[in-house]
Sequence to fold (465 residues):
Amino acid sequence: MNSNDEAEKPLNVLILAAGLGTRMKSDLAKVLHRLDGRPLIEHVFRTALSLNPKKVFIVVGHQADDVRAALPGSTHDARIEFVVQKEQLGTGDAVNAARDRLADVDSNILVLSGDVPLIKIETLRELIAVHLLENAACTVLTVKLSDPFGYGRVIRGDGGLDRIVEQKDATDAERKVAEINSGIYCFDSGKLFDALSNVKTNNAQGEYYLTDVPRLLLDNDETVALFLHDQTFEVEGVNDRKQLASIEKMINEETIEKLMKESGVTFIDPRNAYISSTAAIGRDTVIYPNVTIEGNTVVGINCVIRSGTRLSNAMIGDGVEIRDNCLIIDSDVGDRCSVGPMAHLRGHAVMVEGAKVGNFVEMKKTRLGKNSKAAHLTYLGDATVGEDANIGAGVVTCNYDGKNKHETHIGDRVKIGSDTMLVAPVTVGDGATTGAGSVVTKDVEPGETVVGVPAKTLRALAKKD
Ligand code: UD1
Ligand code: CA
Fold:
């Protein structure tokens, strides 16, 4: 076979994700633990897909259904197949679980670990290139670590790999070796499954080690190549909570540094902000300590976000001030709005340009119109408020009758007096006013003033007298 034929072989990716992850001391399968807001497996899965392989196979076992569900779109995409490893007998057995699907398809197989989330697509492309160039049966991605504890060590012999030895099986001398196995490999499919048939469990953990395959291939006079990579952080594995936290910190630092350097964002204390790598923040925005920005949040330019605030999938316009201790989830805040302190927006709340929401105000599925204000102690749920309206202190849209939710509609330039209860469904017309403490159970006509419990128009009250 010449090298051209080799190059034309399809590429398949196999992700190992069946283990429980004993060292996590968790009831949740390791690959479902979150990093940068997304399950570990999603990071690896997205990288795999971006290589545009023929297929991505995911070996699942522990909490298989949850792992499937954690991968968006995976159940409808014909390129993605799940393979079940019934018992977790080791990484060799995990690969072997895909034998029926892969052994007879002549391909290159890239093996990735569900618990090595930071690997970059460029690195994988280089690994594949080395594999093709060397015409190898197996190419192992390795790095040298100052603290290699826990990893499989790469023992070199004359001119290349001799074998890989796991931490638990290694001698003291072998444990001193800095070069480690990343758990990422490229294999020739036929040769991989041939060698796997000969893997035994005579090791410290009584498992089928995938790491025995390279030695077995060498014994068959096959070529095994090593690709020594210099970016060690890319191959950091998550085996315990400490490693998870340290990788989380690394991603966060990288994200904040990028926001400062490339987007022109000010962080008062860069070590004390938590920003998802999927969020975007505009130029000259200032982030105070202890701010958390999650998911696909977008923050515009010239905003100020004060301490204790959490934004999750929020759209924040330009020139917005978010004061201390606000929680904004799945909601939009328009340009030049002011929020907080201690405000809560959720369930697709929308503040239009120039609107203001103050102390202890909660908004759910509510649209607060341009320049309208709700400054103190208010609940607005399932409501719309027009422009230039003022919602007094302590106002509540009583949207729930014990069975169903109902809507409240408040027009432009309305003044809702303090402590007004708006019993939904109810509409308050443009320019209307409600008196302090009124309980509004019926629609209010535009321009009318209503007062009392239940609220009546001033005209109606005058007639009675
Ligand atoms: C493995 C390698 C080690 C390497 C390290 C890199 C082996 C024997 N050792 O060790 O040389 O330095 O990765 O991170 O391969 N899995 C299954 N089924 C199983 C066992 C594991 O699907 O039966 C999956 C796990 O879910 C995990 C991955 O394989 O995603 C790696 O398993 P893990 O137990 O973490 O291996 P390490 O001890 O880290
Ligand atoms: Ca691991």
